[in-house]
Structures are given as C-alpha cells and as structure tokens.
Design a protein that fits this description.
The protein is α/β, with parallel strands linked by helices. Helices cover 39% and strands 19% of the residues. The strands form four sheets. The chain has an eight-stranded parallel beta barrel with strand order 1-2-3-4-5-6-7-8, surrounded by nine helices. Strands 11-12-13 form a three-stranded antiparallel beta sheet. The protein has a three-stranded antiparallel beta sheet with strand order 14-15-16. Strand 3, helix 3 and strand 4 form a beta-alpha-beta unit. The longest helix is centred in the C-terminal third of the chain and has 28 residues. It is elongated.
C-alpha cells in the first residue's frame, strides 16, 4: 500500500445489527470473543450493542473494560431522545452514557413518513430530537456517529427534509453522517448519486458513511459505489448476517476495496488473517461458514472441472481473480466424476511426491472415485473422506481401531430432556477391548457420544472434535424406505474444519461411516503434525 492511499473507516455491526438475524444469539462471552477477533483484524469501530435495549448488552459493556483493545474503538448504539423528554430524562440516552464508550452511534429518522406515521411526531420535533441528542452527547464528551435511518428512501421521497436531518446532526456536533439504506431496496445508481450529493454538501463538515442491507442482493455493490461517490466510512457485518436477508458483508467489501480499488480498510499485514477471523466468528456464533462466500468461503478458490483444474495447475490466473493466500484462504481441487488426472496428482502428492501423472495408482483412484460416485458418494463436499480414500489406495493409511459391533436403540417416552436414544459400542485398540455406551438426542448423537467415550482413553484428541453439521439426503426416492441415503458430516476442532461422507441403504450405517472418517481424519492430522515437529 502506498503511504498516501485513501483510508476507509470500517464499522462492524455484527454484535448489534448482526444479532438481529434469525437464529443468532450471543452470550456476553461470545460478544467479548468476537470483539477480540475483530480487533485483531484491525477493524476501526465495533458497534457492540444497545445498552438501553436489554440487560445483557449493559453487562457486556461492563465486562469488556477488562479486555483492552489494540485497534478498535467500541461504540454504544441507541436512538435519539424520545419526544416530550429531555436527554437528561431519557432512559435510553442515559444508558449510552452508562456504557462509557468514547464513541456512540445515534440513529434518527430521515424519511418523513417514518416521522409522521411510525414515531408519530412532527417533522420539526424530529429535527429537534436529532440535534438535541447529538449536542447533549457531545457535551458529555462523546464522539457521535449519526445513523440517518431510511436516508436513501427519505431522500427519494422528500430530499429537502432528509437533508435537514443531516444538518441537525452536524449542528449538534456529529462527526460522522452515516447514510442508511435501511430497507435494502435501492439500486446502485441511486446509492451512488445520493451519496455523491451528500458528499458535495457535507463532505467538508463531516465524514460521510454508508450502511446497506441485502434485500435486493445489492448490499456490496451499493456500498462500493457509495465509496466511489466519496463515502469514507463503511458499515456492515463481518459475515453479512443480520436483519431479514442480512447486511453488507464486510468479509467481501474489505478485500474488494483494499485489494482491487486501492483503499485501505485494515492494516495491510492483517489481510492474510481475513479467512481465519471469518471462521472464528462463525465458530463463536455457532453457524457454518457459508462455503459460497467470496474470498473466505471454502469454495471461493475451489475447482472441479478437469479442464479448469489443469489450467489452474499451470497458472492460477487462468481461473482465480486473486491469490487465495492474500486473504488467508487456500486453493481446493474438488474430486468428482468430471475431475481429471491433474487434480488427482495434486491430491496424491500431499502424501507421496514420487507418484507421477502416468502412475497406475492414479488410474486406480480415478476408477474407484467414479465407482463410488455412481453408488451415491459425492466427494466434492467431503474432503476428509476423499483424503482417507486416497491414503488407503496408496498405502498411507493405518486404522486407529477395530470395530467389534455397535447398536442403537430408541427410547420412548424420553427419560429426560435431550435423551431419546442410546448406543452401545465395542471396539479394540492395540489388542485392548473397550465397551462403552452413550445416551443422546437421537441415535446418531448417542453413537457419537459412545464412540467418543470409547476412543478418548486411547486418543484424548477426539474430545476436541465437534460435529458442526449433519445432513441426510435420500438418493432414490422411488425405493421409499429402502432408498439409499447419503450422510454428510461437517466437523471442527476449533482450528480446522473438514467434511466426511457415508452412503448406505441404512441411515445409521451411512452415519457410522461418515462419523468414523471424521474421527480418523482428525487423528491422522494430529499424528502427522507431531511427526513434523520432530523433524
């Protein structure tokens, strides 16, 4: 990056706007961990919650003081004072002061319809509420970021009034005027032209920002065009989740701006940590990282077609828009019936660099993969199982245990909350027999618990494994209950994630095959990591 590069202030709203997404719920400790991750990435502002809305957010602001930040500034979020109340009387405004953050984000209405029909006050009263609140907080020593809610809609409907709300915020001492595309319905040309008009009028008085939603699938495009029009403050959430269809996705916007458009959003040396931070936030949030996300998703640099793979192996620029390592991701070649020998060689040479493209074992692996895919396997989404398959064929595999038997039984009615099945397993490790049982919420969960219990005495690392997703697909609906099923299990040890697969006419057997692959993949990786340390 050049020293005179134009900088963009990033405000991450994962802990506030992101928390409004369906299925998202953060504990206080979750929020602290996410703050630490975003701070490590180099985000400038973290909108950490609305202390006036719930006790958990207020508890967070008290706890986070114990964790000094290196890069980020925390922001408390809240609304303008309510009508017929002074700022000193307004409980929500006072809660912002109680949060003791240097920066506060205040939202106020910029669309006249929202003023008259939703909060039901006069247009003049709303202007007074905006200016009074900004002025009061500035007088209390706070730096104010003003979120002009529904600004783009309001500007289209009544531009004169929308601009007056910004004038009120500036008169009150706000340092940032953040234009919110709250409904997510604006088109890119609207965002560019309206943002440009605001920059022309207020750009010398305040920093101009943009906050978009993805209801039309345009949050990223609208944000980028807003920046091109002069906005230098960008808001979003690190993984894009949030209200309705979500917010502008910062894991996409940051590299778009920094790697392609010449702006600096985070310290350049931190860009290589983007994928790891995205994975960490997903793990803390207890969601699976969308593999289709640009830059940070598992499929962002994944290649499947044989022709594509062959070209990428010769020169990655053939099908990749950036080098994956720039954002801390990696190139992946997906195994399938359309993959060629070039991909097979790339996979095999991870274990044996002496094997060449014309080696007989390559043809054997291709034949075996195609046969398994004919019977329902799909290795493109099961990297762990594919690696184990290759290891078995080239002689780089040693089983960690021998199964004697397993059995599962349903329990009805439930004996307690979260328990409606039990499993028993007998296995052998180095001549030692282990028999264990487990209870769980369903037979697969019970089997997972029993297997983990049986192996933990021999391999303590299995306690680190967490199943993050479990999918079942019926492969032949015509055969009804006799249909073959494919089970895909995604697992994580907190650092890495992998996927394994099993196929059978028996859903429990398919689950067992995927489960065993998951455990063995982890154990093999740990053995190899220890071996490398000894070298």
């Amino acid at each position: 990056m050049e020293k005179n590069v134009k900088k963009i202030e990033i405000l991450d709203s994962t802990l506030r706007d992101g928390a409004q997404g369906e299925g998202i719920s953060f504990s206080v400790q979750d929020k602290i961990h996410i703050v630490q991750a975003l701070d490590e990435l180099g985000i400038k502002y973290i909108e950490a919650g609305n202390p006036g809305s719930n006790p958990k957010d207020m508890e967070f602001f008290k706890e986070i003081i114990k964790y000094p930040l290196k890069n980020a500034k925390l922001c408390a979020f809240g609304s303008t004072r309510r009508k017929n109340k002074t700022c000193a009387e307004d409980v929500n405004v006072q809660s912002l002061l109680a949060a003791e953050t240097e920066y506060v984000v205040i939202f106020g209405k910029s669309w006249d319809f929202q003023v008259t029909d939703i909060i039901r006050c006069t247009l003049d009263e709303n202007i007074e509420m905006i200016q009074d609140t900004c002025s009061y907080l500035v007088g209390q020593g706070r730096q104010v970021i003003f979120d002009a809610e529904h600004f783009y809609t309001g500007y289209v409907k009544n531009p004169v009034y929308a601009v007056k709300t910004l004038e009120a915020a500036v008169a009150g001492g706000a340092k940032v005027l953040n234009l919110c595309e709250t409904k997510g319905g604006a088109l890119p040309d609207e965002c560019r032209s309206i943002t440009g008009a605001v920059v022309d009028k207020f750009g010398k008085k305040a920093v101009i920002g943009i906050h978009t939603h993805d209801d039309s699938g345009l949050a990223t495009a609208n944000t980028l065009l807003g920046v091109e029009a002069g906005a230098t403050h960008v808001q979003g959430t690190i993984l894009g989740f949030g209200e309705r269809t979500g917010n502008a996705n910062l894991s996409t916007i940051i590299p778009d701006l920094q790697l392609k458009m010449g702006y600096e959003c985070i310290p350049p040396e931190n860009m290589k940590n983007l994928t790891a931070i995205a994975k960490r936030v997903a793990e803390i949030t207890n969601i699976s990282l969308n593999p289709g996300l640009p830059y940070v998703g598992a499929n962002a640099f994944a290649h499947k077609a044989g022709m594509h793979i062959d070209a990428v192996l010769k020169n990655p620029e053939a099908y990749e828009h950036i080098k994956p390592e720039l954002v801390g991701n990696e190139r992946v070649f997906l195994m399938s019936e359309v993959a060629g020998r070039s991909m097979i060689i790339e996979k095999i040479q991870k274990f044996d660099k002496t094997i060449q493209k014309d080696s007989p074992v390559v043809a054997e692996i291709v034949k075996r993969v195609k046969d398994l895919e004919f019977h329902g396997y799909q290795f493109e989404g099961a990297d762990g199982s594919f690696e184990l398959l290759v290891r078995k064929i080239i002689g780089k595999y040693q089983p960690f245990f021998k199964l004697h038997y397993y059995q599962t039984n349903g329990i009805n009615p439930r004996i307690e909350e979260g328990v409606n099945a039990c499993a028993q397993i007998k296995l052998e490790v180095d001549g030692q027999i282990e028999v264990t049982a487990g209870e769980g919420d369903g037979p697969v969960n019970a089997l997972d618990i029993a297997l983990r219990k049986a192996l933990s005495r021999f391999y303590p690392a299995v306690e680190q494994i967490r199943l993050t997703d479990y999918k079942v697909r019926v492969l032949d609906g015509k055969s009804a209950t006799a249909s073959r099923v494919r089970v895909l299990i995604e697992s994580s040890d907190g650092k890495d994630s992998w996927a394994t697969i099993g196929v059978s006419a028996d859903v429990m057997e398919a689950s067992w095959l995927a489960l065993v692959d998951s455990f063995e993949y982890k154990l093999i990786k740990d053995v190899e990591a220890k071996f490398r340390k000894l070298l």
